[in-house]
Amino acid sequence: MTATLATDPPMAPLLEPVTFAGMPLVSRIVMAPMTRNHAPGGVPAPAVANYYRRRAENGIGLIITEGVLVGHLSASHEDTVPRMTAGPAEVSWRRVIDGVHDAGGRIAAQLWHLGSLREPVDGLPAWTPSGVHEPRRPAGHAMTVADIDELLEAYAEAARVAARAGFDAVEIHAAHGYLLDEFLWPYTNRRADAFGGSPARRAGFPAAVVRAVRSQLPADYPVIVRFSQFKERAFDARIADTPAELAEILTAFADAGASALHASQRRFWEPAFAGSPLNLAGWAKRLTGLPSITVGSVGLTRDFLRVGGPETVSGLVERLTGGEFDLVALGRILLANPGWATHAAAGRLEAIADYRKSHEELYY
Ligand SMILES: Cc1cc2nc3c(=O)[nH]c(=O)nc-3n(C[C@H](O)[C@H](O)[C@H](O)COP(=O)(O)O)c2cc1C
């Protein structure tokens, strides 16, 4: 056991209560959104409530659900991905939310539209900004302004359902190469109208989604926006080459009513731009003044808790306490280790399993 083990002061700030975007949270640890396909017909199965409750019982301050489809045909045809629609899905979400609240946790719904990454369906082209595909994907339908208006209403309806069901916040998924990110990315957005061109214009539709969602919710209701540089199928892709370009995009989100930003990157310790050690969440916070969430390879192996260095708990907490970002999201390590936070805090390394790809098959 070395001086940087979890039970040492380095871990403590992660487990302190905090108020984030107006939400009181029991810790600064977030469960990152992860698609799990346990919602036949778009309705979360009973196991979903147990799955999230278990994480809330174990020190996770804020749970962000897996991507939940907005109620529009173009969002996805995947039958096992949950939906944010009135009726059975809403009823089931209420049970999920009650379980998390009973355990002292908070839960945000991630609103999702897959854009061109929707699985191909005969005769139904994917909705995209310009019909331009991501590399190796079939060409899609270039959305008209009428389509844009239709989707804004779909997002607004999803926000209404989420708030009515009792979610503490919503997160708008504008990352990883899905529809809203396809608008942000110059490769897929070749539009000549008001929704294409400069970074601010490319942010026009995603920001309109933020505005549409915000318009359905009380002024103090938290609306988080998740964004990334990388795409699921293009790790080197970028929506902004400079902090100034990123500022144009994120300012559009802030002006539209975003309360917080969730900056998705693959490794939290990597600088977002040359010339500064700030990571993407650090830049998001600096450029907008909004609170931010970082994510990316936190705790994947037990070495994270043992070794001092930028990619370990001490490096992470140094950034957190330095104010670079406000919350820390964990994804893959929570699949097999719902109790990661409490085990890590108590120094019970033997109770933690290092992440393996096969953990994605687990569901408990
Ligand atoms: C199985 C799986 C499903 C995921 N599904 C989503 C999703 O629905 N929405 C999303 O924004 N990110 C999704 N992600 C990305 C995670 O939220 C997270 O950003 C990523 O796993 C990196 O964090 P980690 O290194 O802690 O795992 C998914 C990741 C995994 C492993």
UniProtKB/TrEMBL annotation:
Q: Which residues form the NADH:flavin oxidoreductase/NADH oxidase N-terminal domain?
A: 14-348
Question: Do you know which Pfam families this protein is assigned to?
Answer: Oxidored_FMN
**What's one GO MF term for it?**
NADP binding
Source domain of life is: Bacteria
What's the name of the protein?
2,4-dienoyl-CoA reductase
**Whose protein is this, by species?**
Asanoa ishikariensis
